[in-house]
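A quick aside before the break. I want you to see a complete sequence-to-structure record at least once, exactly as it would be stored in a machine-readable document. Don't worry about memorizing anything.
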Amino acid sequence: MKRILIITLMMVSFGTFAQTPIDKQAILNVLEKQRLNWNKGDLGAFMQGYVKSDSLLFVGQSGPTYGWQKTLDNYKKTYQGKAGMGQLTFGIKKVDFLNKDVAFVLGSWHLKREKDEPQGYFTLLFKKLNGEWKIFVDHSS
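That is the input. The structure line, written in tokens, reads:
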């Protein structure tokens, strides 16, 4: 009995946070779709990587913003037109699963525009909702 309890506890401890490579790839696919849509100048499609909810939290240079629509509005104001958006690249540093439905992503971003090349880092929290991974917290600097 003691042996079964120990094995069960080990399975729960290690198995709860272990995800399949399919989950990690699904998250990377969301980010790749975002990158491609950004580079096409399609902010509406880019935003599909985020949970479409008033609880979405985006933290940037101006502080916290709540809500999908407000986040989209801020992107439109900050990155006007294709020239303002430039060409985006990501450098994914790590993807860690906090539980079976929540993942933490650390990465870097770089924009190549005609007049400048802003860059920085981001931390994201993804949540698996209805079988799809969506960003529900984004802290970009």
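Two observations worth writing down. The domain at 19-140 is CATH 3.10.450.50 (Nuclear Transport Factor 2; Chain: A,). The first helix runs from residue 2 to 15. We'll return to this after the break.
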